[in-house]
Design brief:
By secondary structure, the protein is of the alpha+beta class. The chain has helices at about 55-65, 80-90, and strands spanning about 1-5, 15-20, 30-35, 40-45, 75-80. The model is unreliable at about 1-15 (pLDDT under 50).
Length: about 90
């Protein structure tokens, strides 16, 4: 279960953050999990269509450089602030 994030123009495709804090096995088809944050990680369920966006792919490449492909939290870890992540996804044309 998640909630829609304010400030995202297209709410139908906006990322959602898990309220449970734990692993949610009910990830909808066409979505994947990322963990965002510098020290405290927050879990977001985002559409796979973001993978077609060069801006998002740049962010994932930076995450790969810092963390590699072994993600102990079970999803991709993105080492930026939550504010930066939300700002980036609000700019995507998806």
């Amino acid at each position: 279960m998640g909630f829609r994030l304010p400030g995202i123009v297209n709410a139908k495709r906006s990322p959602t953050r898990s309220l449970s804090g734990g692993k949610n096995l009910d990830i909808p088809k066409g979505f994947f999990v990322v963990y965002v944050g510098e020290s405290q990680k927050k879990r977001f369920v985002i559409p796979i269509s973001y993978l077609n966006e060069p801006l998002f792919m740049d962010l994932l490449n930076q995450a790969h450089e810092e963390f590699g492909y072994n993600h102990p939290m079970g999803g991709t870890t993105i080492p930026c602030s939550e504010y930066t992540f939300l700002d980036l996804v609000s700019r995507l044309s998806v």
